[in-house]
Amino acid sequence: MRPLAKGLLILIISAGTSFSQISVLKPAFGTHGMVSTSDSIATAVGVQILKEGGNAVDAAVAVGFTLAVTYPQAGNLGGGGYYIIHLKDGKNYAIDARETAPAAASRNMYLDAAGNVIPGKSLIGGLSVGVPGNVDGLLTAEKRFGKLPIEKVMEPAIELAQKGFIVDGRLQEVFHHAEKELKRFHSTMKYFSRNGEIYRQGERLVQKDLANVLLKIEKGGRDGFYKGEIAEMIAKEDQATGGVITVKDVEGYHAVVKEPLMVTYHGYEVMSMPPSSSGGVCLAEMLNILEHFDLRKYGYGASQTLHYEIEAMRHAFADRDKYLGDLSFVSVPMKRLLSKAYADTIAREIDPFSATPSIDIYPELIHPPHEGTHTTHYSIIDNEGNAVSVTTTLNSYFGSMVVVNGGGFFLNNEMDDFSAKPGTPNQFGAIGAEANSIQPGKRMLSSMTPTMVLKDGKPFLILGSPGGTTIINAVLEVILNVIDFHMPLARAEMAPRIHHQWVPDVVYYEPGALVYDVKQSLISRGYRLVPREAIGEVQTILVTPSGYEGVADPRGPGDAEGY
Ligand code: DON
């Protein structure tokens, strides 16, 4: 494991909840709308926008800008993200606001003379930064689908940046864990420290320069960010910290509106993100495989259920790593991967009793085993049935750790999601192949999985999660808990999770996920089991006949609120 990856893993683990909180978890309830995010201030802003007549998209955009202020570890102006939008007229959209590789990026930019990946180079500092996409994503969503004036939608974020907010224990914790890396960059310390010390719980964090950037976006639209002063600041900071992003790269960035990916599952339609994220394809493949098995009969947590889940995860992640990449650059057999026929073949080949060694699937892509691990998700629905599912990220907590001088916002380290060297794991242990190699202008493959489950064409479940590669499985497991195991929402969220991603060939499991007998059974089937504190942080909304239920995953600091 690379040194930083280890640090980040500890960070993610420490962000996990104490499972004692779980027993008291109750869903929020509302008949007019529901907002579930990773941050209570952002949730309150979303609800306020809904109450003031905004639709779910207005609320989502307001939440997105607010998170850039109050949740600097993952909310962002300097990162990227994905949006799944369902409108009350039945139309569905996906927005791909993933970062792109700068023009000067090249296939081997993170390798030394011997062809080995240089530790940390794709993770910290300017060279790890992809051209930011989230601001165009937010503005595209608002312009196309929002109904309030942008001034109204951005007002709460601007005010929070100008007047400040009180740093809470969770933010202090993540600042503390990243302190050593944050201290490496002068401009980062300029904005996030006082008297040389990173902000602590109880202190007010005022972000005047960030407020000015937000005002420029409010007045100038995309040009306020992607042209002129801010574009110049981004390029300057990136280059000063070892990167290659130019003003032209920033000017040239565009979010793309796409059709969401759809798959049916037991009579529901599951709508998720197409590439450049792998989330939708993997989720679809796993659901198609699992539709073959009567999971309800075996029950949640039974070894037979887990066996089929793990095998479905293994196959989908193998295909992820072999085939998936930015569709504008590589050809991906999408039709085949998404077809029921392909899933039939896999399902029939799964041995009902024994694990399939990962090495048996695409052995040519597996190199010696190697293990290696913020992002934030929000789900919103309004009183007319418009719904939004957004996952956005800087990649690691605080991304590249570099803050833009003059702008006060963090730049991502999303370049690490490319396969720096096909076959070599990134910080999440994902190996990737040629399809995800670095090329100028290309979007790096993501695991973000903003998802909506539709029933009769209307939102039934709205969900998504942070957590790198674990995102896809965490989303899958909540869907199975609701659809297959008929769990009430809070239970579906609380239920301990597992994770398998083909490589490494191990099953990660949360405390309580595997009772003693199940552990023994899985071991005898050939599985290697590794405990892990928290898998995902799923923000979920369930539409019931009486109203909206919302749950923010107790594994994270989030909050769901309805009205
Ligand atoms: O796009 C991806 O898959 C990753 N950059 C997401 C990173 C993430 O979820 C980290 N959160 N814990």
- Count of DSSP helices? 19
**Ligand types:** 6-diazenyl-5-OXO-L-norleucine
* Shape label: globular
Strand order of the largest sheet: 1-20-19-15-14-11-10
In short:
This protein is an alpha+beta fold. The protein has helices at 3-14, 40-51, 56-70, 134-145, 150-163, 169-182, 186-192, 208-220, 222-226, 229-240, 247-251, 279-290, 295-298, 303-323, 334-338, 340-349, 470-483, 489-494, 516-524, and strands at 28-30, 34-37, 80-86, 92-97, 165-166, 193-194, 197-198, 204-205, 256-258, 261-265, 268-272, 375-381, 387-393, 451-455, 458-464, 498-499, 507-509, 529-531, 539-544, 547-552, 559-562. The chain folds into 2 domains: 36-257 and 374-392 and 400-418, no CATH class; 259-372 and 449-537, Serum Albumin, Chain A, Domain 1 (Orthogonal Bundle).
Task: For this entry, give a set of tags.
2 domains; globular; 19 helices; seven-stranded antiparallel β-sheet; disordered N terminus; binds 6-diazenyl-5-OXO-L-norleucine; alpha+beta; single chain; 563 residues
